[in-house]
Design brief:
This protein is α+β, with helices and mostly antiparallel strands. Helices cover 41% and strands 26% of the residues. The protein is built from 5 helices and 7 strands. Helix 1 packs parallel to helix 5 and helix 4 packs antiparallel against helix 5. The relative contact order is 0.16.
Length: 195
């Protein structure tokens, strides 16, 4: 006979709640993906202050970041940077990039940079974090549908997060890229700077 204790019951409930959250998140990813791939979702590009949007996003997610025991290093320019983008798609893209960091980063710190590049022609947002096994990551494959690095294969998720980031960027005429610098993964999104 198995003795069912309060602690054991609490552990089961927490496990079930965690699994339910994972399933909900995967369902959300597949729904979002179906909308993006079918072109059913309207894209409203308008002139947005990227500095302000990113600061607002981080402010809205501060509790989530702290709950995960993480601390961002934020590097922003002294001025506003304007791009043509869709507010809703931009927030989803930032959300997926942040989720990727919170799931896979090594250590408690990660970095978010906003900078002007290409002699003032591009606005580049970069999410950067340490990774445990950089040799297992294939940066050229990170944005493929359902790609998951070796370390992530035992974890949750369908491997759609960065693929969705790529689709969201393309719908806003932006480009994504990933690179490894030693054991640091950088994922960048480049928007043409608006006037």
């Amino acid at each position: 006979n198995t003795v069912f204790t309060v602690d054991k019951g609490k552990q089961y409930v927490e496990t079930c709640a965690g699994k339910a959250d994972e399933i909900r998140e995967m369902a959300d990813d597949f729904f979002q993906l179906s909308l993006l791939e079918s072109d059913l979702e309207a894209v409203e590009l308008k002139r947005l202050d990227m500095t302000e949007r990113l600061l607002q996003f981080l402010s809205d997610r501060e509790a989530l970041i702290r709950a995960k025991g993480m601390e961002p290093e934020v590097i922003f320019p002294q001025k506003s940077m304007f791009v043509l983008a869709d507010e809703k798609l931009l927030d989803r893209m930032f959300g997926n990039l942040l989720n990727n960091v919170l799931r896979h980063a090594q250590g408690e710190r990660f970095q978010i940079r906003l900078e002007e590049m290409q002699a003032g022609k591009e606005c580049v947002i970069t999410f950067s974090n340490l990774v445990a096994e950089p040799q297992t990551l294939q940066t050229e494959a990170l944005f493929r549908r359902t790609y998951r690095g070796e370390r992530a294969r035992t974890g949750s998720g369908a491997g759609l997060g960065l693929y969705i980031v790529k689709l969201l960027a393309e719908k806003q005429k932006a480009l994504v890229k990933a690179r490894l610098i030693e054991n640091r993964l950088e994922i960048s999104v480049s928007f043409p700077l608006g006037s």
